[in-house]
Amino acid sequence: MSNHNLARAEAATRSALISTHSYDVSLDVREAADAGVPGYTSRSVINFSAEPGSSTFLDFIHGGVHSVFLNGKGLDVAEVVDGDRIHLRNLQAENQVTVTGTALYSRSGEGMHRFVDPADGQCYLYTQYEPADARRVFADFEQPDLKAEFTFHVMAPSGWHVASNGAEVARTQLTSDPATSRWDFATTKRMSTYITTVLAGPYFRATDHWSKAFDDGRSLEVPLALYCRASMQESFDAAELFRLTKNGLDFFNDLFDYPYPWGKYDQAFVPEYNLGAMENPGLVTFTEKYVFTSRATDAQYQARANTLMHEMAHMWFGDLVTMTWWDDLWLKESFADYMGTLGVDKATDWDSAWVNFANKRKSWAYVQDQLPTTHPIVADIPDLEAAKQNFDGITYAKGASVLKQLVAYVGFEAFIAGSRRYFKDHEYGNTSLADLLEALGTASGRDLGTWARQWLQTSGISTIAADISASGDSMAAVTLRQDSVDPITGKQEHRPHRLRIGLYNFDDGGRLLRTEGVELDLEGAGTKVGAVEGKPRPALLLVNDDDLSYAKVRLDAASEETVRSSLDRLSDPMARALCWTALWDSARDAVTPAALYVAAVERFAPGESGIGVLLNVLGNAVTAVERYVPAPQRDAVRESLMASSAMQLRTSEPGSDQQLAWARTLAELSRHDSAYVEFFRGILSGSVIVDGLTVDADLRWSLWQALAANGAAGLSELDAELALDHTAAGREGHALAAAARPDAAVKTAAWNAAVNDTGLSNEILSATIAGFSLAPSGLLDGFTEPYFDCLEDVWQSRSIEIAGRIVRGLFPSAQDLQAGMAPEDHPVLRRTDDWLSAHTAAPRALRRIVIEQRSHLFRALTAQAAGASQQDAAGPQRG
Description:
Elements: H1 8-17, E1 18-28, E2 39-50, E3 56-59, E4 65-70, E5 73-74, H2 77-80, E6 81-82, E7 85-88, E8 94-106, E9 111-116, E10 123-128, E11 149-157, E12 161-164, E13 168-173, E14 180-185, E15 198-201, E16 204-213, E17 219-228, H3 238-256, E18 265-270, E19 277-278, E20 283-287, H4 298-314, E21 321-323, H5 330-347, H6 353-369, H7 384-389, H8 394-410, H9 412-426, E22 429-431, H10 433-444, H11 449-456, E23 463-471, E24 474-483, E25 497-506, E26 512-522, E27 526-528, E28 540-543, E29 552-554, H12 557-566, H13 573-588, H14 594-604, H15 611-628, H16 631-651, H17 657-669, H18 677-685, H19 697-709, H20 715-724, H21 728-740, H22 744-756, H23 762-773, H24 784-797, H25 800-809, H26 827-838, H27 844-874
Helix pairs in contact: 3-4, 3-5, 4-5, 5-8, 6-8, 6-13, 8-9, 9-10, 13-14, 13-15, 14-15, 14-16, 15-16, 15-17, 16-17, 17-19, 18-19, 19-21, 20-21, 21-23, 22-23, 23-25, 24-25
């Protein structure tokens, strides 16, 4: 089994028996550039204490173990090595174990990932371990509570840059092999295995430094470095990244009142990365998609800054103080998500951080929290497979949203004071929920036990609406009502909400402005808002104004009418974002037809000044068209949105982010419609010029993908484009376009490449799956049975990262509801239910993905059914 699961109970037993002190790890990657060499020598020397006479095991996913020495005695490898575990028996009070073996290079982004740059043929290495892939690189005790000091040594080509968590202390060119050098790195402070790291290759490197003087005369000097592939150097805006880094270090060192503890601060932007970034102390790794080689919007730059601040916050939340087990993953990710947005808001020039958080980040949480597989923020994580699945919208965005609510509840100063105490009390240690609650409760003077039970230990999302009783033009009574069923228990969980109600009215110039606001606590199923009784009914009554709480909002009828007629007159960006979210939730929940959401986008998105919000609502509109609008209406709704997008492409300010956003939307919609094929060909050839539009590599591939999906681009043309853009991004763009061609043989080849072959790297695999999934109705019907037939084999034979991409991406989700059919009777839903019933013993993580994909399909079919019936009842819904 390649997923190499580890149970929580096993980890707890091991941590009760042993305590780890130090690792000395040597890696020899001098032959990495030779594609015929599958692995490298790894040597791990571990010092640890144990209960005398006890037994335990090491973790090592390997290509062969050469030797194992325990306390100076060589062990029989055949006897002690059992798959990816190395058994250690009859331990002493103090022990040293040395394991030498072959570790394998990865193409999945797990462990030591090896990438060959198609632009120049150079080889690049980096490691990625979360939650438990350090064991793919060196033998270890792979669990977060067995912290230790780490010393790394790396043998690599002399011309490379090599880095690790600690600072480089020596570099020695081998006299026996001058082409190879040995790098030795400083010993780290105590940390978990999953945040150790190594970077090696001919990376471009930029350096700087940051310093801070303290009132007591002390000073802190932190060397800074940035890395990217050499072929991306021209696009690498190192000066801006250093500026953001220094701003962040200024902000968090002052905020947390705890000096940055990890010595240096390197940041590396690496290829084919599975995450946005990873908080390895001293050497943070990021996806190189944050090195913008094509035109990027201001929202993309802000998102990068948010990720940079998120990872920096982890130096304290997660690295300095780490959860004991993955149940409390939120202790690091929720805080980092909240602090990332706070850092952008307080330490950069952007003023829309919380608006984008409300409109995009929380929307991710709302989607996740309505799935049948949702879970409490403090989750039940019985094993590593479950841990891998819980890096989701609940742990990140809902957790951050709840922390935002907690800050409103206890006060910002108390929240920060509690955090400071938490760092000092638990530095370099491990914690659980109780430890944090104790620190925050002491600082705030509040008992947070009830709050934690209601917000952290329950599941689901509250829906809040205002019931308004009118007396003429006045509000006789206003009651906020809360519906909050926990989808796991089926019980109502009436959580306390600290929120604000905004009353908005039109001024003499026609602007929709807040004329009054009321802050209150919503308790139980309903709370009367006495402060607004007797007041004139506003044009818009906005529940959860300023986005203080975590909840879906239903607009009352009069407020919804105002929003649908006058959203562009609402001048406050946060209020607009919240109204956009309310409209989207209404469409997703089949309360209103999805076509109405698309109509609102056509009408009001051209006036949306916030590029982050604009990109989000345009993305929602595409989803609404392709998934939620009933099939008989879809072509007309799509054509209307395409026409609006084309008009905005031509009339937006030349060169603006808005123009680029509309261009991307038109390209995405055109994957399903051939109306703009000739227009796109003209742009690609240069015979059609759109004033101000930069037709760079990213946009060109988007247009080629639209042409290919319509059968209007052949493989020879795609190959010719790839020859002009022989980069990593170009390979991904080509793979998607090639698999998108609407031909049965093409789809079969793409399926085989994804499912039956193992030669695709993680990113090329995802691009191939995305292209495969673009197909006219009916072309993919023959792959439904093969999908369900292959699930368990894929899960058993592939790493969890690759298996997850296949299972999630190939689910037959592009399905429509036939006339007269109930959503639950759809054949794909029935087939999914049959598989789940017949495979109750399948791995929980596999079942979770299938259940979630089923839920997404069921929601889409339900929205289609509602849209069809509502149109039948009310006539045309657009205009």
